[in-house]
Amino acid sequence: MAGAAPQAMAVTRALSAVMQQDRGRLMAALVARLGDFQRAEDALQEAGISALLHWGRNGLPDSPRAWLLKVAGRKALDQLRTEGRSARREAALAQLAILDTDEVAEDFPDERLRLIFTCCHPALEEKSRMALTLRTVCGLSTEEIARLFLDAAPTMGQRLSRAKSKIAAAGIPFAVPGPEEWDDRLRTVLTTIYLIFTTGYTAGPDEPRDLCAEAIFLGRLLLALRPGQAEIEGGLALMLLTDARRAARIDADGATVPPGEQDRALWNRQHLDEGRSLLRTALLRKRSGPFQIKAAISACQMADPEPDWPQILQLYTLLLTIEPTVVVRLNHAVALVENGLVGAAQAVIEGLRAELDGFQPFHAAASVIHARAGAWDKAQRDGLVAIERADREADRLLLRKLLKGLGPTSPGSRSAP
Amino acid sequence: MQYMLLIYTSPDAEPTYGTAEFRAMMRGFSDFNDRANADGVLRGGEALQGIETATTLRLRGGKVETMDGPFAETREHLGGYYILDVPDLDAALRYAAQLPVAAWGTIEVRPLMAYNPANL
Q1: Which parts of B1-120 fold into alpha helices (H)?
Q2: Nearest by CB to B89, which of A85, A87, A173?
Q3: Chain B CB contacts of A87 below 8 Å
Q4: How confident is the model over A23-61, as pLDDT tens digits?
Q5: A309-341 pLDDT tens trace
Q6: Which DSSP category does A340 fall into?
Q7: Would you call B98 an interface residue with chain A, using a CB distance cutoff of 8 Å?
Q8: Residue in chain B nearest A178 by alpha carbon
């Protein structure tokens, strides 16, 4: 027989494995019954403490996650019985009583779709949606989330608890939206997941948790829970295609490399193939949407043997009609210049100058466009502003390279205005 | 749950009396009223007189201070409210979106405080 310490270690490892794997599913089942995020979280935590005791004594149960759900339900029941009467309490008690008497099956109903839609409700702040989804669906700890968003742990803790109390106090339903609201709400969910992805994509390589992988996990989960949705397929395809370029997006000098100039041997073939195939499936459904368009743009940037610029321009023109955001307008202008429509691109970019003066991506795009047009002075002027305002060293390096290659004279011989 | 829909509008953004937009607005309010009544969710609602009729009061150092005008000088003013009894925030937001003012003003949706704290 093993000693106490190795046994404790084995049980701890088994518990953390179940919690990592099934936390979202357990939380979803508990919130469905309790109607309250904080109660669900507390009950699950207590069940985990019980598990350490019982599993250490009696060995692992047949289904650890079913065991955890049953015990968490019992903990919540005990807690609710000490409280005063209310309609919500009665409803929760009735639900929990069923859990207490019936056997809980290993494959208890998966309520995670409701959980995702509640965490990504538009009545919550954008950052809170991301944090709450990572906490409850992906099972990241508050400390991990804080680090990934460059916040202090107590600040992130407060944000999460504010979000949970708003769900309870404002009466945000634990529900999948009906057909009337489906498209808008799905877009909010996909945007939240994509923001998690881009936060991971722009973060340094030495983060302990990879947010890109978490976001792709969420995309896959969403698709598994509601198959056949073109926009979910499009969103997942966009993330896979972008992720496929991860190893190639920074060169040996540490500078950002645009997709068209990347070393294609460094692309992740598996993600690329999966992304392309998902996108094809999505497009065949003939239900267009912004995520499919963005995935298609990404796929065109990765077309063999070089980017398909005419197609990219068409796609940006289409995207402009649905999402006329600043970033889409800038990318549209860059697509114009890549198609040789230099004058048109310059006209677009100068039309945006008054509105976007000082906005880093504007100056970066303007510099590229003017350089193509041979307007070295303007390219240099915007390039210097873009370098000064860039958040990341990799982008500064890319811009410096661009300026170095400019025009008949080297930038060193000119004085900045 | 009961929710109050607080309706904020700026008078200069409102349609003028006698125009087609004005008639559309009136019809919108009446449709909203009919629907909320038919659904059995309307618990109350009143319109307020303009801010030129508002008087603001504070008690400071035991002294009553009254002022002519509204609490906050903002572009959009509180113009009225409805109280609805609906299952959740999504339902309240669905009704709020049907109010014609949503197109040019702002509607704040707030749950009423339950007096029984255990009922939270």
Answers
A1: 20-38, 89-98
A2: A173
A3: 119
A4: 999 999 999 998 889 999 999 999 999 998 898 888 889
A5: 999 999 999 999 999 999 999 999 999 999 999
A6: T
A7: no
A8: B90
Q: What is the ipTM of this complex?
A: 0.74
Structure tokens at B90: 């999504």
Q: Identity (one letter) of the amino acid at A123?
A: A
Residue B119, pLDDT score: 46
DSSP A250: B
Q: Give the predicted TM-score (pTM) of the model.
A: 0.85
Give how far the C-alpha of residue A185 lies from the chain's centroid of Cα atoms, to the nearest Å.
Answer: 15
Q: Which residues of B touch A88 (CB under 8 A)?
A: 119
CB distance from B108 to chain A under 8 Å? Answer: no
In angstroms, how far is the first alpha carbon of chain A from the final one?
79
CA separation for the pair B85, B40 (Å, rounded): 8
Residues of B in contact with A173 (CB under 8 A): 87-90
Helix (H) or strand (E) holding B83: strand B77-85
Rounded to whole angstroms, how far apart are CA atoms A255 and B11? 54
Greatest alpha-carbon span in chain B: 52
Q: What angle do CA A259, A265, A271 make, to 5 degrees?
A: 75
3-state helix, strand, coil in chain B (%, to 5): 35, 35, 30
**Token digits for A12?**
């701890």
CB–CB contact B93 A123 (8 Å): yes
State the nearest Cα–Cα gap between A333 and chain B, in angstroms: 32
| Residue with the two structure tokens 């494959």 | A107
Which candidate, A179, A189, A39, A187, places its Cα nearest to that of A115? Answer: A189
Residue with tokens 């919540």: A76
Residue of B nearest to A88 (CA): B119
User: Token pair for residue A322?
Assistant: 């649905």
Instruction: Give the Å distances, CA to CA, from A132 to A18, A24, A285.
Output: 20, 11, 32
Residues of B in contact with A39 (CB under 8 A): none
Tokens of A353: 């100058």
Structure tokens given for A14: 């088994």
Q: Reply yes or no on domain B2-114 having CATH 3.30.70.1060.
A: yes
Q: CB under 8 Å to A197, separation ≥6 — which residues?
A: A211, A212, A215, A216, A239, A242, A243
Percent of chain B with pLDDT over 70: 95
Kindly tell me the burial class for residue A336, based on how many C-beta atoms sit within 10 Å of its own C-beta (0-12, 13-18, 19 or more): buried
For residue A417, whether the previous peptide bond is cis, meaning omega lies within 30 degrees of 0, is: no
